[in-house]
Structure prediction request, 973 residues.
Amino acid sequence: MLASVHAATLTGVEGRPVTVEVHVTTGLPGFTIVGLPDAACREARDRVRAALLSSGLAWPLQRVTVNLAPSGIRKAGAGLDLAIAVGLLCATGRVDTAVVGDCAFLGELGLDGSLRRVPGTLALVDALVAGAVVVPLPSLAEARLVPGVRAFGARSLAEVVDVVRGNGEWPDCSSLEPGSAAPADAAPDVVDVAFVRGQRVARRALEVAAAGGHHLLLAGPPGAGKTMLARCLPSLLPRLDPAEALETTKVHSAAGLPLPRTGLLEKPPFRAPHHSSSPVALLGGGASLVRPGEVSLATNGVLFLDELGEFPSSLLETLRQPLEDGTICIARAHARATLPARFLLVAATNPCPCGEGGEPGACRCSPSMRERYLRRLSAPLLDRFDLAVAVRRPSARELLDQPSDETSAIVAERVAAARSLSRARGMSCSARIPSHRLDEVAPLTPTARHLLGERIRAGALSARGLDRVRRVARTLADLDDAGDVVDDEHVAVALELRAGRDVLSSGRVA
Amino acid sequence: MIGPAVLSVRAVLPSGTQGSPTPTPTPTPSTARTICREPDDAAFVMALCALPGIGPATLRALLERQSARACWDAVRSGTLSLPSGRRRVGGEQERLARWRAGAAGVDPAELLDRARGSGIGVHVLGDPSYPAMLVGEPSAPVVCFTAGAGDLEGAGSSHAPTNGQARVAIVGTRSATHYGTEVAADLGAQLSEAGVCVVSGLAAGVDAAAHDGAIASGVTPPLAIVGGGVDVVYPARNRRLWGRLLSVGTVLSEAPPGAAPERWRFPLRNRLVAAVSDLVIVVEAHRTGGAMYTVDAALARGVLVAAVPGSVRSPASDGTNALIADGALVVRDVGDAMALVALVRAGQYGDERRSLARGPQPRRSAAAQSLHVDASPVEASDDDVTARVLAAFDSDATRLETLLARTGLDLGSASLALDRLVASGRVRRRSGAYERTSADRGQPARQRRSGDAMTRRDPDPVD
Prediction:
């Protein structure tokens, strides 16, 4: 007897439809899985047998061959367990093939027959050719995000068998088990900007970064509050729009990260990989299965690199492609994937190994130490930062006296308003204004033009730098709701907000 | 303390004089003696100088005993013995063996041709081309090498040994702060404009900044005295500066071309920096370090030492402030430096030094007065915002945060005002903060802070 069941497997963050074909025939009892299964997938044999027996279903004492088609692509993980079990039941005639014909099955089986969540459910369901899908109950919310597919949830194999045999109903989705997915809604690391004392310039830079999507570099001594400032950023960013939310959720789901109860990530992710992260952890990859890395997990959100100078320079250079294209292309011998990687890069760094480089006379690093440290931050990488702010330790007075004036909520409102102005021009934020549209989108007043001209003549601004300043000035004008034209004040602030990179060249002569 | 002219001891025979090939009997170490010369022995002197680990004093002691040619032959044949004063306990045989190995296969004539072919000047003590400024230095190198477009006065020229040109050494720590590099660059530029040759070691930090300033002004060719060979750029980050210096000034070294910048060469280099200068200005120095070698060498030669005062909290000014506390003269700007140069050259300092240090303002030389930077080209009346920003400055670098807090201005108008001030050269950005430039230092900061004084500029306060 032959039966085939729809399922899907994951490559990168994209699903690929898979047909599970089960052939049962007479012969020596045995169970073979063919079609490029990986180790976890091949172990499905033992899980399926135990789950069937635990659910009170007989294991056929016949020769069973399972083919995962198309056999050319590698199948990873345990997500095909349920499909194999259902296929086996069809092939041995215990379930009517016609009933499951237009239905796909996704889920990992426990030895007791329970169904477990599969990473990447969203992408898998999206890739299905079937019109309906059965998923483990915890993944139901996620599966229902895909339009055009009827999704049902089940707790166990027995429940699935009962329903397809016509003996029961799908469990009510309102009975979702609490705690089945970690409550990612409460992001614990986010700091309200009102808690930051002093740092007016850096706070303004954060606001501009949030509103315009400009990459931000914070340079300053230890204890200046660089990390705290960066952690404020998520509270300033607007919620993701539906398309962005779906894209980000897909990546997080594929990586097996916890999703909020609704299944959809609506808040921008904030990823802060440590500087000891491996290239694969940061960029994505893996031997056979391409997993999304931190750059992809930060899609539509913030990638925060603390202690930028401690990251290996080779790793930092690899960030240039995602920063330029918004995607990262990963190629391995057995797999190839293009993952989204459109993030807002926020980096914090000390100006030198001892950290005191910005303060006159305080640094005890030799020039060669300083140079070695700064050499990791290549000019092309530093060039990607539209905003670079020198952060200093707040004074005692600032720490103790000054009341916090603006909360994140107030700033976030301005940010949202600026973003909607940008969307009205046809781009998600001003950092993505193409150069050829700058004259149209961000026209300069004569005084602003004069100011920039002076800088260019003085050799302090390159052509590429000019475009970046104009984009930041556009964001500043939007935040002030200053109309269509960018005036000299906005240009002056934009120049000021990128001038902080000079602490990273401190002590160099000639 | 006595002036350099008093200390100078004639150490050179007139050129062409035949040196005695026989070893001169034990002289007293305190007096400098002649070295043995033969015609066309420059190649052998150079070859000896290039032996591994041979220092200038040893070389000199060898050549005081026998001619370069004889000495070279003795090295090659292994029959050389070290002069009594240059023997170390143990290791003598190893040293001689190392020299012998180093001399094997070396053709002195080819060595000389190669150096001259690549534009390096080879000057042996006693040659007419030997730098006049080193004549009279008791520890003058037997041979020195020069490169670059600069024109050093030779000992044989008609002016010699009057030391026609004024030379000022600007020295200091390699890990200088911005304050140090800035002051060094200003002094370098303005001294060069005043016709003074700026001497330094072309090291990182203060040295490089001083030369950078002197080259930028482009008036007087600077002189760099380096530890390694004149064709060995060190530190590598100075490569561009080195090239620029060669195109206008002179690089001088007593190490042969290609010699690595070994550690032991630098203190020796520093003695030459002190020896050729009329005045040594220490811009920034830690309590110990290379700059202090130069200071010691200068004091030993009676060369005037002056220091630029710095913050008592800055470790990089520790050494300079200590020098001042010990009685060194103070240099605040080019005017101070020029006054001291004028006094040195008029032979007027010495016992007066103390009174100069304690007494009233030193008289400024005519050159210093003519040199004093005039008020910056700033429009007569600043607008109110600019005035408020200017008034909020500390005497040193001030952060934008601080300026915002003091003025109560928003980021936009403050940025705009700062941009105008930077454009007009009255304020400059420095490592994440702003500071007033020397062009804007007409009045002390305290006066500026109060009231409306900053809207008009007082007449230049040069006395």
